[in-house]
Amino acid sequence: GARPRVLSGIQPTADSFHLGNYLGALRQWVAMQDTHDAFYCVVDLHAITVPQDPAVLRRRTRVAAAQLFAIGIDPERSTLFVQSHVREHAELAWILGCLTGFGEASRMTQFKDKSAKQGTSATSIGLFTYPVLQAADILLYQADQVPVGEDQRQHLELTRTLAQRFNHRFGETFVTPEAFIPEATAKITDLQEPTAKMSKSSSSPQGILDLLDEPGPLRKKVMRAVTDTGTEIVADEENKPGVTNLLRIHSALSETSIPDLERRYAGQGYGALKKDLAAAVLDTFTPIRERTEKLLADEAQLDRLLARGADRASAVARQTMDAVRDRVGF
Ligand code: ADP
Ligand code: NA
């Protein structure tokens, strides 16, 4: 039978994706191409829920797309596109917003957390309706499955509710998507602050391994990673979060189990683990960086790839919107 359709998006809000994005999400995007009809989206409409410099946003959107092709998203098999290139996202978000209760949207914990951090006067209505736009992203393509981490469960629930509500009120129109739980994704922590998640908003760039970092800085960051007291190389989340993180990264990149790594490094110091880990990081990152640079150097080629992705996405989105517009009474 046909492969289930999957939709996933990522924001173009950093100059490079980092190791956490790669191991926690993007590597699964590559793998899902074997099992799914994949739609992958660089979500620049979501990015502007907080202020963005236009030139920076435009550059980061292209760099994000180039990195996705570089890690192995195959334009022959998958539809990779930029959200703002397909106008139907904003149109469907408006219609779904009119079906969303104010109280219902107010219960979204991610909004509560983010707006509390920003303060009410700095918080846009776009940030408030972000989950409705996310619902539009998913429902436009009639996605069967959406990969979700814990933090996105509530948003997917809202998407399902909106699909069912629309179908009930206007007639069967949308597929109700299911959560797709990818095989255990590694939670990667900051190399300088190993109890905090590796994030583009980390306090120090030394704690983040960026896919586009040069070999020198990458090696340095790994060698200077914060480790723990003692000398033993064992995974122990509570007492040895630094070493545990390094083992987890090593395990994910070299596809070796953590117990196997513990046996390999028995009796050796942290330096040996870090040296091998730096080599593993370079093996993975270097070809990705080189392919990204090549794609960015050929603007016309990247434009063609993105235009093709947008064409394929638009064909599906338009078909959905034709039905939606008709049912709503437009
Ligand atoms: P950031 O945390 O840098 O702001 P995003 O929130 O944009 O990154 O996350 C994009 C994707 O990468 C999400 O699927 C998220 O779960 C994943 N991700 C981000 N950081 C990590 C991490 N440290 N470990 C595992 N996955 C991560
Ligand atoms: Na984040």
UniProtKB/TrEMBL annotation:
What Pfam families does its record include? tRNA-synt_1b
Which residue numbers does the motif 'KMSKS' region cover? 197-201
Q: Which CDD domains match?
A: TrpRS_core
Which SUPFAM superfamilies does this one have? Nucleotidylyl transferase
- Which keywords accompany this UniProt record? Aminoacyl-tRNA synthetase, ATP-binding, Cytoplasm, Ligase, Nucleotide-binding, Protein biosynthesis
Select a single GO molecular function from the record's annotations and give it. tryptophan-tRNA ligase activity
Residue positions binding ATP? 11-13, 20-21, 149-151, 188, 197-201
- Enzyme class, broadest EC rank: ligase
| Catalytic activity, EC | 6.1.1.2
Q: Which reaction does it catalyse?
A: tRNA(Trp) + L-tryptophan + ATP = L-tryptophyl-tRNA(Trp) + AMP + diphosphate + H(+)
According to its UniProt record, where is this protein located? Answer: Cytoplasm
Residues noted as binding L-tryptophan in the record, renumbered to the chain: 137
Q: Which domain of life is it from?
A: Bacteria
The keyword ATP-binding appears for this protein = yes
- NCBIfam families this protein is in? trpS
* Subunit: Homodimer.
Query: What is the annotated role of this protein in its UniProt record?
Result: Catalyzes the attachment of tryptophan to tRNA(Trp).
Family in the record: Belongs to the class-I aminoacyl-tRNA synthetase family.
The molecule here is called Tryptophan--tRNA ligase
Write down the species. Actinoallomurus acaciae
